[in-house]
Design brief:
This protein has about 375 residues and is α/β, with parallel strands linked by helices. It is built from 11 helices and 12 strands.
């Protein structure tokens, strides 16, 4: 009897440990991309001595909150604060207040996959990150002080007219490659892009994995360009609001499932990094150096639908903002409302100026008439 109880307890202990291990998640890597014109991060260590610490997701979320100019969670430990101090500049008054947070799934460490030096990662601060059961909670004071913009609007070859042969051809030209379309069947051509490693990445739009990867890549570039245009349009009306850009890239997973992590999958990672480097450069120009990137990589996330990022508002959003966000999750309604308010302000100002000028002209004419009456 005692032997059975002992065996049963041992089996229960083993299953419990396996369950805890499966729930604990896996490790990955995260890269902090600094502004080249206005540094907000500590310089990367040449010998890698500062890059041995592993970040937990709550610590990663706290780092993003601080970069946005807000206080992290009060439960942050002294050890976690020390880790952040090794990454962030100590001056609390020098924060970019604009952060790009991108989660890339399908590769745990791009520096292992891409053998040559990549311009995007060369000067970035790298940390190992542990994907446990907790999420990266980013604490925000309220939607009136920060704008959260999603980069996950997905273009589809089947449903979206923006994702067509011309879009692929334009992307190929932008990357220094070429696209040979099939004249008999749309979206059935061959895409060729030269890589920094010297190899050429050849993708056929007739293959599902190749098509999904390119659709994800075009979606990411489309969404970032949309953000650049919105920021330029609203640069005068939303100066005091912080900006958090969040997105998740799953295109690498499609290539890995079809071709494995080597070969085409490895070349896909290289193309993604090159594309991110160009897009982050566009963001730097639009934000005048006041933006930092946080790009995380995970090989096997807990769930395909679950994201590592969790935005938490410490105060309730206003009723107006809730109504605008309900109409348009991608903040399109908020942007339109801001533009309308800005336009009304300009129109009001113009009316006041015109009224003042008319009043001045009428008073001058009245004074001249009185002068004439006195003479006669």
């Amino acid at each position: 009897m005692d032997c059975r109880i002992s065996k049963g307890f041992s089996l229960l202990l083993i299953f419990s440990l396996l369950f805890i291990q499966s729930r604990a998640g896996t490790s990955g890597s995260v890269f902090f991309l600094d502004s080249p014109t206005h540094p907000f991060l500590r310089p990367r260590s040449s010998d890698g001595a500062m890059e041995v610490d592993t970040l937990l997701l709550p610590e990663l979320g706290a780092a993003v909150s601080v970069l946005l100019g807000f206080a992290p969670s009060a439960t942050l430990s002294a050890a976690s604060s020390f880790k952040l101090n090794e990454i962030l500049m100590p001056n609390p008054f020098e924060r970019p207040r604009s952060v790009l947070v991108l989660e890339v799934r399908g590769v745990e460490d791009p520096e292992v996959v891409v053998e040559h030096d990549n311009s995007l990662l060369h000067s970035a601060i790298k940390r190992k990150v542990f994907y446990g059961s907790d999420k990266a909670e980013i604490l925000l004071p309220g939607d009136d002080q920060v704008s959260v913009v999603s980069l996950d609007e997905h273009l589809s070859f089947d449903l979206d007219t923006n994702c067509n042969d011309k879009e692929i051809s334009d992307f190929a030209s932008w990357m220094g490659g070429s696209y040979v379309a099939n004249e008999l069947k749309p979206l059935n051509g061959e895409l060729t892009i030269p890589l920094a490693s010297g190899a050429n990445l050849n993708l056929h739009m007739s293959k599902k994995a190749d098509r999904e990867f390119i659709a994800s890549l075009l979606s990411l570039t489309h969404n970032i360009r949309r953000v650049v245009e919105m920021h330029q349009d609203l640069s005068g009306s939303m100066q005091n609001a912080a900006e958090l850009l969040t997105g998740c890239f799953d295109g690498i997973k499609a290539l890995n499932e079809q071709y494995g992590s080597g070969g085409v999958g490895q070349q896909g990672v290289e193309l993604l990094l090159t594309t991110l480097s160009k897009m982050f450069g566009s963001l730097q120009v639009a934000y005048k150096g006041q933006i930092v990137g946080v790009v995380s990589f995970s090989g096997t996330p807990l769930s395909s639908s679950e994201k590592m990022l969790d935005v938490i508002y410490t105060s309730q959003p206003t009723a107006r903002s809730l109504e605008e966000m309900e109409d348009s999750p991608d903040l399109t309604a908020t942007i339109k409302a801001a533009l309308v308010r800005k336009t009304l302000a300009w129109i009001t100002g113009i009316i006041l100026v015109v009224s003042t000028l008319l009043g001045y002209l009428l008073s001058s004419e009245y004074a001249a008439d009185e002068g004439h009456s006195v003479v006669f």
